[in-house]
């Protein structure tokens, strides 16, 4: 195990509820930006990533219930069917919670590889619902899962950095 | 919270599997109810109002960039635009006067034939708040909702043609399904020949397809398709699409006809919502009237053609 990346063992500030809500809020805002065309196809699902981060790092604070609730809001904002995102995020949160010990054993690069199937299953849940209701699947939709997995490492670093206390008060 | 309750060993509520099953069933139930019965529109409206300010917030960076662009537009471009518009205005007004003559003549002829008078439709301007956020759908949101009495089913167009149809109305927003949305049907007729047909969206932003047209049908490239007004969903004679290419393969009973939407479906910020649909007499058969009703319903219409 690479000691450089095992940030979870070092002392982190307890993630207070406000910070979790704030991070989810920022992720939702990023998802709602007016993405268009190819940017939309390649857009990483920020909400899924942040949910997965909290499900793997604080599995007793953020779980399937919160993921489902966020999904309902995403459904209304996207004008998709009620429960479509909710189902996808439920599947994602379940995967994150079941695998949270395993994922946290690896360094960030290996974590990304572990996160990809979780994201793919979540995307698949969404696509299957769409296929059942409307009868076709846009395959390029799954590219979003790949870009999301690529974004896993930077996003984890960012959130870990925000949770780490400053050792020296004069440190920037 | 949980971290401090050290004495409650292993008591963390239902297991993840139980929660997964519960929330999956709940989602599927919601999906079923929403897809099948549409009971949840009021809940959707409430949540939509709650998240509306945040949605506007996310649309703001784009708007600000647009406004900065407008601010720095040079005088020369403005002058150029002005000259171009003036020229356009003159040609248009010349055509308009001809049109007035024609309209008068047409009205006269229609009274002679005792046909219904065509009416002008009131329009209201709406601005696009954001475009589709889901690659499965061709939808966008405009900033007029039930507060300005937009109703479901109204037609949205720009100056070139039909862009789409209002499919859901929120208090300050409405959702527009574009004509290029997969399987969105528009009853049309071909301007040159008056041939009636239905044009379907393909899910691609630049293409629509004209299905179920026999190989022998009289269609050529560059034919303009206008709404026929049959079925009362769309007002008549709004331009919709232009025929791009035709593949006539004798192995198939139908020709493959690809059309391009005339309206800048993905180009504009401001759109027009057309209100005041023609009130048709009640349909005798028990057929549900929806935005994308099946094709054979529309083909059965028997109103007089111009």
What does this protein look like?
- The complex is a heterodimer of chains A (172) and B (306).
- Chain A is mainly α and 172 residues long.
- Chain A has one domain: Arp2/3 complex 21 kDa subunit ARPC3 (Orthogonal Bundle), CATH 1.10.1760.
- Helices cover 68% and strands 0% of the residues of chain A.
- Chain A starts with 16 loop residues before the first helix and ends in a 9-residue tail after the last helix.
- With 306 residues, chain B is α+β, with helices and mostly antiparallel strands.
- Chain B contains 4 helices and 12 strands.
- In chain B, the strands form 2 sheets. In chain B, strands 1-2-5-4-3-12 form a 6-stranded antiparallel barrel. A 6-stranded antiparallel β-barrel of chain B has the order 6-7-8-11-10-9.
- Chain B is globular and about 80 Å long.
- The C terminus of chain B is likely disordered.
- Chains A and B meet through helix 1, helix 4, helix 5 and helix 7 of A and helix 1 and helix 2 of B.
Strand and helix layout:
The complex is a heterodimer of chains A (172) and B (306).
Chain A: H1 17-32, H2 38-42, H3 46-57, H4 64-78, H5 84-98, H6 100-105, H7 108-134, H8 143-163
Helix pairs in contact in A: 1-3, 3-5, 3-8, 4-5, 5-7, 7-8
Chain B: H1 16-36, H2 41-71, H3 75-113, E1 123-131, E2 139-142, E3 155-157, E4 162-169, E5 174-178, E6 185-190, E7 196-201, E8 208-214, E9 224-227, E10 239-247, E11 254-261, E12 270-274, H4 295-299
Antiparallel strand pairs in B: 1-2, 1-12, 2-5, 3-4, 3-12, 4-5, 6-7, 6-9, 7-8, 8-11, 9-10, 10-11
Structural category of chain B is alpha+beta
First-to-last CA distance of chain B: 73 Å
CATH level 1 class label of chain A: Mainly Alpha
CATH topology of the domain at 123-277 and 293-300 in chain B: Thrombin, subunit H
End-to-end span of chain A in angstroms? 29 Å
Indicate the CATH class of the domain at 123-277 and 293-300 in chain B: Mainly Beta
Q: How many distinct folded domains of chain A?
A: 1
């Amino acid at each position: 195990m690479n000691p450089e990346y095992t940030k979870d063992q070092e002392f982190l500030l307890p993630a207070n509820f406000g910070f979790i809500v704030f991070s989810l809020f920022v992720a939702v805002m990023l998802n709602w930006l007016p993405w268009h065309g190819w940017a939309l196809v390649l857009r990483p699902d920020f909400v899924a990533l942040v949910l997965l981060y909290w499900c793997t790092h604080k599995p007793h604070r953020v779980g399937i219930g919160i993921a489902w609730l966020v999904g309902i809001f995403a459904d209304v904002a996207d004008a998709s069917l009620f429960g479509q995102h909710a189902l996808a995020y439920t599947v994602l949160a379940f995967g994150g919670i079941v695998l949270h010990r395993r994922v946290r054993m690896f360094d960030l690069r290996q974590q990304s590889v572990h996160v990809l199937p979780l994201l793919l299953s979540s995307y698949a849940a969404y696509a299957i619902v769409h296929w059942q209701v409307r009868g076709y699947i846009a395959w390029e939709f799954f590219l979003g899962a790949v870009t999301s997995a690529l974004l896993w490492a930077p996003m984890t670093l960012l959130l870990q950095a925000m949770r780490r206390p400053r050792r020296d008060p004069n440190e920037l | 919270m949980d971290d401090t309750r050290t004495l409650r060993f292993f008591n963390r509520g239902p297991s993840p599997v139980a929660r997964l099953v519960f929330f999956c069933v709940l989602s599927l139930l919601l999906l079923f109810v929403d897809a099948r019965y549409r009971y949840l529109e009021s809940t959707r409206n409430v949540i939509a109002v709650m998240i509306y300010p945040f949605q506007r917030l996310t649309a703001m960076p784009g708007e600000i960039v647009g406004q900065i662009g407008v601010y720095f537009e040079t005088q020369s471009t403005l002058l150029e635009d002005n000259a171009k518009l003036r020229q356009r205005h003159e040609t248009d007004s010349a055509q308009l006067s001809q049109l007035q003559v024609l309209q008068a003549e047409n009205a006269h002829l229609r009274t002679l034939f005792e046909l219904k008078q065509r009416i002008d439709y009131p329009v209201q301007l709406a601005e696009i708040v954001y475009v589709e956020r889901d690659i499965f759908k061709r939808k966008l949101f405009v900033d007029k909702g039930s507060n300005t009495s937009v109703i479901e089913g109204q037609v949205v167009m720009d100056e070139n043609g039909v862009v789409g149809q209002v499919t859901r109305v929120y208090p300050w927003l409405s959702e527009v399904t574009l004509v290029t949305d997969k399987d969105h049907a528009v009853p049309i007729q071909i301007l040159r020949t008056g041939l009636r047909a239905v044009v379907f969206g393909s899910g691609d932003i630049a293409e629509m397809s004209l299905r179920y047209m026999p190989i022998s049908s009289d269609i050529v490239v560059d034919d303009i398709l206008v709404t026929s007004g049959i079925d009362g969903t769309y007002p008549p004679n709004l331009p919709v699409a232009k025929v791009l290419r035709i593949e006539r393969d004798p192995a198939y009973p139908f020709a493959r006809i690809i059309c391009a939407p005339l309206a800048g479906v993905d180009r504009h910020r401001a759109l027009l919502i057309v209100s005041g649909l023609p009130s048709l007499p009640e349909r005798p058969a028990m057929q549900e009237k929806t935005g994308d009703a099946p094709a054979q319903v529309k083909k059965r219409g028997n109103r007089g053609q111009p």
